Amino acid sequence: MRALTAHSGTLEIVEAPTPEPGRGQVRIRMEAATVNPVDLATRDGHLAAFYSPRERVGLGWDVAGTIDEIGPGVTDFELGEMVIGVSDILGLPSKTHADLVVLDAAAVTRAPRGVTPVEAATIPLNGLTASQAIDMLGLHEGRSVLVTGAAGGRVVLVP
Fold first, then answer.
1. The pTM is what?
2. Which of 5, 19, 64, 132 supports an S-S bond with 102, CB 3.0-4.6 Å?
3. pLDDT (tens digit, 9 = 90+) per residue, 35-53?
């Protein structure tokens, strides 16, 4: 399996072991993933203080793809189902910029109907950020919020 990793500010596609889902996890065959500012900061080593040192770190937070394998205890998904997910742990050797991605089922949901994998891949991190921001504002029913500059992550396809 191929995975995009970072080391000392450079990017490299490496051959990585095929990840296997454990209890409560699913494996996703990646069809699209985004590049977010956090990926660039990780690539450049700016976030290294937040995870155990390792020679290479995986990149990618958002993913869209199909369920390829289901771990024990997962009953909410079916093989071949189109999903989106977010990998929010820094410092892993492989993240969403890989052929296969293992995530906790709680970090995955069905992709919206009628959207392409490229469109779907832009939803997880941006949606999570928006949801958390609205929660922090404590808005009450009938209140409004204006969101500016919400263009989102750029999408990269890895065949």
1. 0.87
2. 19
3. 988 898 999 888 888 888 7
